[in-house]
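Lab notebook: predicted structure, single chain.

Context: the supervisor wants predicted structures on file for every construct in the current expression panel, including those that have not yet been purified. This is the next one on the list. No modifications to the sequence; it matches the entry in the shared construct table.
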Amino acid sequence: MDAILDYMGWVKSMENHGRGPGTIRYTRILSDFFIYVIHKGIAWEKIFTVDTLEAFQNYSGDKGACRALRALSDYLFSNGKIDQPLQVSRSEPPLPDIYEHYLLYHAQSLQPSARHLRAVRRILGLLHGYMQRHNMRLPALKIEHLDAFLATFKVSHNTRRIYCYHLKGFLRHLYHEQKVIKRDLAPLLVGPPQFAQTKLPKFLRPKQVKKLFDSLTFSNPTQIRTYAMVHLAYSLGLRPVEISRITLDDISFQKGELTLSERKMCNPMALPLPEKTIKAIALYVSKGRPKSPSRNLFLTHHFPYHPVSATTVIGHISKVMKQAGLPSSAYWLRHTYAQNLLHLGRSIYEVKEMMGHQNIQSTHRYLHINIELMRKVLFDEEL
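Prediction complete. Output recorded below exactly as produced.
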């Protein structure tokens, strides 16, 4: 009870600052949990376990129990009251082997986020269920069946486009890797009409880059964190998800290097850190990063401190760009990095490696907008 009261006092203080969860609901859930623990005679060391959580959820029937108990365990762990916080893994029902093999292949080759993998698993599970209900098998799959399957969803065009994207990857795998279907159905899965599909990468001009960095401030930890993120995106061309996954162990201040161990396509590499970027990271570590046992570099600034997500990186970088009066997004910094490499005379293959692209076609898109390089390559003409 002392632990719960101490935690609820902290929750109320956070709520006064607009950052805490709902006090009334958490108080009710944790009060019920306290009574349950006393009634069952559960020892302290066995309270914050998955077995106890599942048993309490079945007892109370409250869907918010998991979040409340995880938050309580995180708080107690950060204050040294328990050895480790409550770890809850999202278990998904297994799909047939051919689906599971694709999910494993997808995870190993692209290094997507857990959220992305759950989305892919969900659409594949729905496809499997649809085929079972209609007594269909994968070798007999036709585009008409896929169109009928997609027609069962009453969703927006953008959501349907995402479903098509996930399905196309699976269909290419069935045709090229597994040889299960006799025809590559991925190109036929076009979905609803799309206009202006070919979008060239957008980037910042030198004056815009200067305007962005001149607008950055350091009055609070969040601004210091954003400053370091902007430097990593601009000076190394990192994707938001790559920035979110950087750990303290990846950074060598002595060598001036950053090791990307979880880069897309399983292509780890060490990148040189410019002096300004090193200083930006050092400033964040010393002045902005909250104290936490987590080894991730960038953490949230409210308790419990968790590693930031790629969405958080995108949101904060886009916010400072908007404040600087720039109609741009976080990915523009990555595109600007590619343009800078081309302008410095790096070959298209060098740019491919530095950007972490899977194939050269992705890198070729940047040639279309580097007019100066195009004229030099095609016409041997200097501007």
